[in-house]
Amino acid sequence: MENHPKTIDEAVKLIMSKKNEVKDSFNKIDEKLVRDWVTDLVIDKSFWGLKIQEAVLLKIEKLTGKKTRLANRTEESKGIDGFIEDTPVQIKPTSYKTASNVKTENLKAKTIFYEKQASGDYLIYSDDAL
Q1: Structure pTM?
Q2: Strand runs (DSSP E) across the chain, as ranges?
Q3: What's phi and psi for 20, nearest 5 deg?
């Protein structure tokens, strides 16, 4: 305290400032913002994510000649998105590798990554041997 007598006061001011920023942001959350977020989650992420998974599996089937299928609800609850023959797989966008909110997720099946190209086609690869 002798070397830095203002440290505590400065820290308190900084924390209170951040608290007020959070409070202001929280007050900006309205029904439209929540509706937009839920729509994005349910329609865009869920619906389109499922369609992309289906397209990825169909492309793998076409390229390899191996039978593929989407997972059923029970399999999905175990973290499986689909199957290549009898091998369970998860299908993730390449951005998944760097997403901070999923770093602790434990992937339980071989993972197939996809990236949408400018042509509209999907680049598909796996870090695992399939």
Answers
A1: 0.61
A2: 68-70, 82-84, 87-93, 110-116, 122-126
A3: -65, -35
Q: How far is CA 50 from CA 43, 53, 91, 110, 122, in A?
A: 10, 5, 10, 17, 14
Residue range 78-118, pLDDT digits in tens:
889 999 999 999 998 888 877 655 555 666 688 999 888 88
In the chain, the percentage of residues whose pLDDT exceeds 90 is 42
Report the distance separating Cα 43 and Cα 120, nearest Å.
20
* Sign of torsion over alpha carbons 118, 120, 126, 130: negative
Residue whose token pair is 């499922």: 50
Burial pattern 31-67, b for ≥16 Cβ within 10 A else e, equals: eeeeeeeeeeeeeeeeeeeeebbbebbeebeeeeeee
Q: Is 47 helix (H, G, I), strand (E, B) or coil?
A: helix
Q: Which two tokens stand for residue 6?
A: 């203002």
Place of tokens 């059923």: 72
Chain centroid to CA 71: 18
